[in-house]
Design a protein that fits this description.
about 425 residues; mainly beta; Immunoglobulin-like; five-stranded mixed sheet; 2 helices; about 45% strand; rod-shaped
């Protein structure tokens, strides 16, 4: 050690660093002056240097960190600091050790010193880095998704997470949920197999979810529940499910050199979508196709016996007027001439008999009859619909049907009046 001067009466105060010597051993400290006078002090015990270790050296605000300390003063008051923040105080064990936990305080992202110091000045430090917490969850790919396609989720996170995802259809009913999501490793990705809610089996696709051909169209919702340590966060969003555009299918088939007939395309029916548009439902060996009537060149061919026949590029179909959404094809009864009705629609105009469209005369005003049919109502001359007037004789010697009707109604009224007089007379006579 360096020389230390004494005061006028021979006293001294000295500070020294403990040299690198064996620990758990007592040493004698001696002071010797220039004249050879020697003084021994009490035995000096050399112990291990205090140390602390952290359960994690990188984390996020709110994370729980465990501090383990060794070789501090026994049964001493000890304080833990996070940077300049006093985190907690406690008493060390009889052997100078301790294990305490704390939550990372709300501090900016960066590097910090965690320090433990006891009441006798023994201390130790460890480094800790506060990271920014981020997570991104969203369906991968495009929106809308088409029936028959697969969907997967993109998940990017700064930490390993436990995630569960549920999906509800347009009516809010659970359509799919996962059975067991794996924890995503740091800077890694896992493909996760999905549970098919309808089929009741694990999906054959790993990391992909199959949208059935009969999936409801419209806006679907998804909810992801993320758990990290004791923290739980919820994320949600939507995606659209739509029919595969007919033109997309045709283009793809053309690229493959395959015709509709080769995939057994059959027009099986007409449906009205949520926007009120009439669509063709086409069955194929690859699954159903939904197409607009324009896309398949639909034409109204005829209306007979209450049934409309429609020709298309993928075949003909017959649909009863009751089942056909006439408003979706803008059906309108244009006119009636010589007992023949002209009906216009957005897919063509046809002529048909009055019986074929269930025509009925609902009123007559002079020589004008109001006729109601399955495809609309129109006013026309009584002469044009005289076949609908059952029990009314045809015009004779220039007298029109309207005149006959007026005559008959007058006779009915006269008979009723006579009957009323007879009843009154009988009551008076009685």
């Amino acid at each position: 050690m360096d020389d230390v001067p004494t005061d006028e009466i021979g006293n001294l105060t000295a500070t020294f660093n403990v040299p690198e010597v064996s620990v758990a051993t007592d040493y004698i400290v001696r002071a010797v002056d220039a004249e050879g006078n020697e003084r021994e002090f009490s035995p000096f015990a050399v112990t291990e240097k205090p140390t602390i270790t952290l359960s994690a050296n990188i984390g996020f605000v709110g994370d729980t960190i465990i501090v383990t300390g060794l070789h501090f003063s026994a049964n001493a008051k000890c304080t833990i600091w996070f940077g300049t923040i006093n985190i907690t105080s406690f008493t060390t064990g009889s052997d100078g050790s301790f294990s305490k936990s704390f939550k990372v305080p709300d501090v900016p992202v960066g590097k910090y010193k965690v320090k433990a110091e006891d009441e006798y000045g023994k201390s130790a430090t460890a480094d800790f880095t506060v990271k920014e917490f981020f997570i991104e969850i969203r369906p991968r790919g495009h929106s809308p998704y088409y029936r028959g396609e697969t969907i997967s989720f993109y998940i990017n996170s700064s930490v390993p997470l436990s995630i569960t995802i549920s999906i509800n259809d347009t009516d809010g009913y659970p359509f799919w949920k996962d059975v067991s999501w794996l924890t995503i490793p740091w800077n890694g990705y896992y493909g996760v197999r999905y549970w098919d809610q309808y089929e009741g089996v694990m999906s054959a696709y790993e990391g992909l979810w199959y949208i059935p051909h009969d999936a409801p169209l419209g806006t679907w919702t998804w909810v992801a529940v993320v758990t990290y340590g004791s923290t739980t966060k919820k994320f949600s969003g939507t995606f659209e499910v739509a029919d595969v555009p007919y033109t997309t299918i045709i283009t793809k088939l053309d690229e493959l050199g395959v015709s509709l007939s080769e995939v057994n395309a059959t027009l099986s029916g007409l449906i009205t979508d949520v926007e009120g548009n009439l669509k063709a439902y086409i069955d194929t060996s690859l699954g159903p196709i939904i197409a607009s009537l324009d896309e398949i060149n639909a034409k109204l061919v005829s209306i007979e016996n209450g049934v409309a026949e429609i020709s298309t590029a993928v075949g003909d179909i017959k649909v009863s007027l009751d089942a056909l959404d006439l408003s979706a094809i803008n059906a309108k009864l244009e006119s009636i001439e010589d007992g023949i009705a002209t009906v216009s629609t957005s897919i063509g105009t046809v002529q048909t008999t009055l019986d074929d469209i269930n025509a009925k005369v609902v009123s007559i005003d002079g020589n004008v009859a109001t006729v109601k049919t399955d495809v609309g109502t129109v006013k026309t001359s009584v002469d044009e619909v005289k076949d609908l007037l059952e029990g009314v004789p045809p015009a004779i010697s220039g007298v029109t049907t309207a005149v006959w009707i007026a005559v008959i109604l007058s006779l009915v009224a006269a008979i009723a009046a006579i009957a009323a007089v007879v009843v009154v007379q009988r009551k008076i006579a009685g």
